[in-house]
Amino acid sequence: MARKAVGFGEDDLRALAGARSFERGLGYLDAVSGLEVGEGSVTAVVRGTDVYEVELTLGGGEGMSGWCDCPYGQEGNFCKHCVAVGLTVLRRAKTIPHQRAAARARASGLEAWLSACSRDELLALVREQIAEDRELRRRLELRAAAARSDLGIVRERILALIDPRPFARYGYVEHADAPGYAQQVAEAAAALGALTAGGQAAQAVALAEEAIRVLGEAYGEIDDSDGVVGQAADTVVEAHREACGVARPDPERLGEWLVGHVLGDGSGVTDLDPLDYAEVLGPSGLARLRQLAADARRRRPSGWAERYLTERLVKAEGDVDALIALYAQDLAQSGATHLRIAEELESAGRADEALAWAERGIRDCAAETYIDGRLVDYVCARYAKAGRSADVVGVRRDRFHAERSLAAYQQLRSAAQAAQCWEAERVAALAVLKEDARRERGGGYGGPVLIDTLLDDGDVDAAWCEAAGLADDRQWERLADLSRETHPVEALAVYLRLVERLKEPTGDRAYEHLARLLLGARECHRALQTQEAFTDHLAGLRAELKRRRKLMSILDRYGL
């Protein structure tokens, strides 16, 4: 009933947060206050080390998300504070529909009241707010200056908005401060738009270019892991593009500025594409753009930005052969460039040439341990479509021999099963891995891959035969998990050995792992009808580790 009312359940919270944060969230239920339910979200505050603001979206499964301004939450994690708010919502699930209705009524009432206010009343309300909210006052002052075309004040305020120094407490804008700085950058973009709308497009062009330059210079000192500053910077570029569309600056000068920005050190802050300005540039501006791009490529043929600019211009001209010739000058060892060429040719309706380039990529990269999987998939998909199942198997077999990985083995298995030749292919593939294991026994990569493939095939008996001296702890545990009923003695020995190794590590993750191992050991004892031995072992373990209170609580929770 609770899930139906709010759109999520405890399982969703646990999946989003992970076991550790979920368990910690249980301890913060009494710290939640100020719960407000909206149409699609819930907000609240949680008192922890500090007072944190939390917002949850009320969607099910992948549609649900949470935000918290604690350090862990600002890294994009669904933190313990989000868990606490989510659990509080579930506890109050019966009241949620009523709270949503009340929220809608409040919003409707506010809208009706504002609509009924006179001009003087609204002005008084705005004045009251700007007297109390310095940030709001600053934003409105900027809008007013833009509307008056007071360019001196507008420039001063825009440059102040994009100045990162107020956010750089240690000479660097940290991750937690990036959203606040991004909001100011977006405000600067809005002011530029207002300037254009107010008939000052030419001035907006110049100011936007100055703002973009300053942003580029500052970006190297900003932790923009979430990309929020980059997104805000793109709104400044959009304001510049709109201003150019109105002001119609000199096309050749605009072309020079665009090339300078793309090739400059600060270009990483925006996704500026010169071709988005094609209509404003016109023939003369585009010609200047091409000339400058060609000159830059001659000076630095291996430069990434120079290559990007050249590729964009060639692609825009629609000359597929010229684009392929450009790509072919620098073929990546992973085969990624071969794939790009194949995709361009296929888009141009030249499917046979596309496949030939992709096949060339497979040949050129045959000896590489790593090859772009999309290239292999591309070739195999076209072989399969043409009914060439044996060729699909051949490609997958070659990649398996080069990579010796579980993923390559699984892909070979799928292809060979489709071609009805898996039995023979499996024997040959396992022979390769067994030979690797013999050579690498005691620490190489062949053994673990062999064990993983046998377990993936469901061949548990064969995995037991090969595991000694090869399997790592992860594989031993999985092998035991799959063998509690069929090999209880062997599985129990594995669990007990791993339990001994986990006595030293501390922390929730280690304790959760230890509890899972003990559950496995208990199942083995049940299969062997030796429950008393497990009870004695568990009692001894609890006595030995009794000072670890968190471990004791976790064992209690698992019924151990």
Report what the structure shows.
This protein is mostly helical. The protein contains 28 helices and 4 strands. The protein has helices at residues 2-6, 10-26, 71-74, 80-91, 96-116, 119-132, 134-147, 151-161, 178-197, 201-218, 228-247, 251-263, 278-299, 304-317, 320-328, 336-347, 351-364, 373-385, 389-403, 406-418, 422-440, 446-457, 460-467, 473-481, 488-501, 508-528, 531-544, 549-557; strands at 32-37, 41-47, 51-57, 65-68. It has a 4-stranded antiparallel sheet with strand order 1-2-3-4. β2 and β3 (51-57) form a beta hairpin. α9 (178-197) runs antiparallel to α10. The longest helix has 22 residues, at 278-299. The mean pLDDT is 87.
Overview in brief:
With 560 residues, the protein is mainly alpha-helical.
Percentage of residues in strands: under 5%
Q: Roughly what percent helix?
A: 55-70%
Total of helices: 28
Based on DSSP secondary structure assignment, what is the total number of beta strands?
A: 4
